[in-house]
């Protein structure tokens, strides 16, 4: 019985390892990637199986893809062409993507989150008709302050010497700031308005 179970486990590991060795990695210009199986690469797009729903396919245009990798090597889809707006060389685009990935993993935007949470709550608790303006204005301005890149959020300190890496990191960091600010501002506003209406109803009950 023990030998049978051991054999089954080994076979399962072998199947998983084999399936992974034959898989393709589709790397997008925005830093996202898919470990999947590529079906077709014609007609200016790449079709591959949806990793979450294998019975469904995803089709992405070539101008959004950097490369397709598998055990046989890497095929670069991205083309350096300033005429169509691709101003980074292939090596520079690699650094740009790494910057995006590091910012996505390591940049927290805590200041924007907590700042707009309090702004939204403070505006909401006043009950003013224009109270939503404050948190939305905060969100609009969240991307303005300079992005401080902490070394702990960088996968390789040498990347900080690459302008393309910095551009990619800052691009995603500003976006994360605004998204987290928008979410926290909305939550704060809802909490503030809820508090306002609760206090108002309490005062009404006292006056009766």
Task: Walk me through this protein's architecture.
The chain is an alpha+beta fold and 208 residues long. The protein has 2 domains: 2-78, SH3 type barrels (Roll); 90-207, no CATH class. It is elongated and about 75 Å long. It has helices at residues 2-21, 90-106, 110-126, 133-141, 163-207, and strands spanning 24-28, 33-36, 38-40, 45-49, 57-61, 65-70, 73-76. A hairpin with a 7-residue loop joins strand 4 and strand 5 (57-61).
Q: Rg, please? A: 25 Å
Apparent shape: elongated
Portion in strands: 15-25%
What is the H/E order? HEEEEEEEHHHH
Summarize the biggest pleated sheet.
Answer: 4 strands, antiparallel
Helix content: 40-55%
Which residues sit in consecutive blocks of at least 5 with pLDDT less than 50?
2-21
**Count of helix runs:** 5
N→C terminal distance: 78 Å
Topology, number of strands: 7
Q: Give the strand order of the largest sheet, numbering strands 1, 2, ... along the chain.
A: 2-1-6-7
Domain module count: 2
What structural class do the secondary elements suggest? alpha+beta
Q: Give average pLDDT, whole number.
A: 86
Short summary:
This protein is of the alpha+beta class. The chain folds into two domains: 2-78, SH3 type barrels; 90-207, no CATH class. The protein is built from five helices and seven strands.
Topology:
Layout: H1 2-21, E1 24-28, E2 33-36, E3 38-40, E4 45-49, E5 57-61, E6 65-70, E7 73-76, H2 90-106, H3 110-126, H4 133-141, H5 163-207
Antiparallel strand pairs: 1-2, 1-6, 3-4, 4-5, 6-7
């Amino acid at each position: 019985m023990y030998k049978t179970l051991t054999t089954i486990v080994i076979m399962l590991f072998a199947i998983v390892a084999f399936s992974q060795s034959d898989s393709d990695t589709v790397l997008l210009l925005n830093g996202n990637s898919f470990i999947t199986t590529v079906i077709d690469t014609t007609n200016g797009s790449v079709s591959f199986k949806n990793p979450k729903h294998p019975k469904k396919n995803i089709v992405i245009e070539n101008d959004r893809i950097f490369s397709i990798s598998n055990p046989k090597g890497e095929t670069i889809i991205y083309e350096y062409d300033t005429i169509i707006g691709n101003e980074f060389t292939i090596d520079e685009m690699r650094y740009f993507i790494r910057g995006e990935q590091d910012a996505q993993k390591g940049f927290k935007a805590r200041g924007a989150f907590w700042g707009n949470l309090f702004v939204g709550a403070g505006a909401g608790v006043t009950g003013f008709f224009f109270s939503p303006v404050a948190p939305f204005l905060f969100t609009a301005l969240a991307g303005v302050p300079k992005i401080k890149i902490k070394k702990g959020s960088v996968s390789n300190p040498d990347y900080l010497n690459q302008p393309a890496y910095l551009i990619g990191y800052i691009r995603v960091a500003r976006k994360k700031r605004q998204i987290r600010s928008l979410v926290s501002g909305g939550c704060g506003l809802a909490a503030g308005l809820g508090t306002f209406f609760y206090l108002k109803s309490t005062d009404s009950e006292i006056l009766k």
